[in-house]
Amino acid sequence: MKNSESKKSEKYILAERAVFRANSGLYFLEECLALIHKGGTDPAFSRSLYILFSYNFELILKSRILLASELISRKDLIEKIKSHDLELLSKRLSIEELQSINVKNILKNENFGFTEYLVEILDGRTIIFQDLIDVRYDFEKDGLRNIDLNESAKMQSDVNILLAMTKDIMKMLPPNK
Question: How far is CA 50 from the centre of its chain?
């Protein structure tokens, strides 16, 4: 463990790692959207982007849960964030804690047999995340996802909102010494 990390509590170490991974992952996703996936839904690219998109939001949510936690041990902290269910994870935060990262509500939804999460942000807009497990195993399903001709532009806008969330969480971290 690095010397600066040994002085921080486990929750801050884990939260910092999670939010910085989310932040860099979102910048990578931003580059993919700008350079590779520029249009509508494309099965070859969209599935990989959905996984990155959902994973990075999951890290944002988990970093906020860690910061709000009163738990001390690494084992207990990791147990608290073990889930890919975004609605379930959101219930581990108070309304105020969700609002501190611009989230009003997270609801699990079924859309043509696919699980997704509707994340309402404070200004009333909704960001849709595909369930991380469901998107990886969607080949087992008989249906197809809806085609969105503006998928790339919408995701680019949503990535900007998520990047702002990472910055809000970074402000909650104790300064490095």
Answer: 11
Which pTM was predicted? 0.91
Count Cβ atoms below 10 Å from residue 106 Cβ, excluding itself: 22
DSSP for 93-161 reads S-HHHHHTTTEEEEEEEEETTEEEEEEEETTS-EEEEE-HHHHHTGGGSS--PPP-TTHHHHHHHHHHH
Q: Rounded to 10 degrees, what is the CA torsion of 136, 138, 140, 141?
A: 160
- DSSP secondary structure of 66-102: HHH----SHHHHHHHT--S-HHHHHTTS-HHHHHTTT
- The residue behind tokens 């909102």 is 161
Boundaries of every domain in the chain: 3-172
The model's pLDDT over 93-110, given as tens digits with 9 standing for 90+, comes to 999 999 999 999 999 999
